[in-house]
Write a structure and sequence with these properties.
163 residues, 72% helix, globular
Amino acid sequence: MKQENFTKIGDLFYVICRLSIGLFFLITGFNKLFHPVFQGYMLKTITSLGFSNPQLIANFVAANEMIWGLFLLIGLFTRFSSVALIVIMLVALVTKDIHSIPAELVPIDPKVGTKPIENYTWLTYFLYLPQVLYIMLLGLFALYGYKAFGIDKFLKKKVSLYR
């Protein structure tokens, strides 16, 4: 009996996480497409990374974040939308965010001097990046699908691909 309750609570928490991450990508994608400040940030980032035709790439990425975020939110093509968002996060991680990890540590006391960063410390910085957490959560969504609430529930009955 307790195992059933735990599963239901776990399913509820899973769905809340899926809805939250879907909403996050929907809103951030929308802002990058339609909000002038976020459009500027996105274009500046894409331009600084050296992508050709940065305006097209910025709009493409933002539209994908928005669309796949919406699909994740409503539980439509949950597995595929999660994989699509994982790809976006991997590209962001590799092209931009992984370079924010420092190569050396600068202590508060300048007399100590800088020290090269150890592997385990580098890993701590890496795991602290939000993209890593998003990739992990999206990986769960890709593996388990919509779980308990979503449009995929109705499609599952009609499409053998979701078995």
